[in-house]
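To whoever picks this up:

The nightly regression suite flagged ABC transporter ATP-binding protein as changed. Nothing in the input moved, so I suspect the structure step. Input below, exactly as stored in the fixture:
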Amino acid sequence: MHNVGLTYQTDKQMVTALENINLQIEEGSFVCVLGPSGCGKTTLLRIIAGFHQATNGEVLLDNEPISPKPDEHRGVVFQQQMLYPWLNIEKNVEFGLKMRNVPPIERRRIVDHYLEMVGLLQFKKSKSYELSGGMKQRASIARVLANDPRIVLMDEPFGALDAMTKEQMQDNIRNIWRETNKTIFFITHDVEEALLLGTHIIVLSSRPGRIIKELHSELPYDIEEGRSRMYRSEKDFVIKREEIINLISS
Ligand SMILES: Nc1ncnc2c1ncn2[C@@H]1O[C@H](COP(=O)(O)OP(=O)(O)OP(=O)(O)O)[C@@H](O)[C@H]1O
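Regenerated output under the current build:
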C-alpha cells in the first residue's frame, strides 16, 4: 500500500479520513490496527476489502492493483455478526462454498473442519439466535475461513463481548491463525488485545489517519492457550502498552 489516502465527499463537506498510508502486509502476519475513534481504521479495512476505493495512492496484491470489488479472497468479520438467521450454523458456513459450486461432499468436509476449529461442531444444526455472542462470532469466523481467503479482515470482532469471552476468543483466533497461517488484519480499540495478538501493530494518528507507530512482535507465536493474562504484567508489555496509550491519547 503506497501513499494511500481517502477523502469522503458528502453533500456538505469533504472529510479526509486517511492520508499517506504506506503499509506492507506480510503473508501470514497478524496485523493489528489501533488509533483514536474516527481516525480511519474502518476506512482502511474497507479499502483493503474492496468496499471503498482509495482516492490517492495504490493498493497492490502480489504487485497487481487490488480488485476494486469485494471477493472471496478478502473475508470480512464485522463487530456484529452477519449470519443469516433463517439458516442453521452449518448452512451459514456452507453458504459461500455453495455459491461457488463446490461439490456437496467437499462442502461438508470443509464446513466440519472449520466448525471444529472454532469449537462449534456440535452446534451445527442450531440457528444463530440460539447461540451466545461469542459463539456467533466464532460461526462468522468459520464462515469466512471456509472460503479460504488470502486475508481475513476483522473490524473490532470482539468489541461487544464480555471480558472472559473476549479472552477466550483471543486464544481461539490466535490458535486459528497459528494453525492456518492466514494473514489477519484486525482492528481494535483495545491496546492489550493488539499486543497479545499482533505480530505487526500499527498505530494511526487522529483524523486524518496517518501511521505514527509500527511495532513488530514475536509474542503471539509464544503465548500458550489460557496463559495470556500473565503477559499483561510483564515489564516489556507494560512499557509498550503505556507508550501506545500515550500516542493514542496525545
Ligand atoms: N461514508 C462516509 N461518508 C463520509 N464520512 C465518513 C464516511 N465513513 C466514515 N466517515 C468519516 O471518516 C472518518 C473515519 O471514519 P472510520 O469509521 O474509518 O473511523 P474509525 O477509526 O474506524 O472509527 P471508530 O474507531 O470510531 O470506529 C470519520 O470522521 C467518519 O466520520
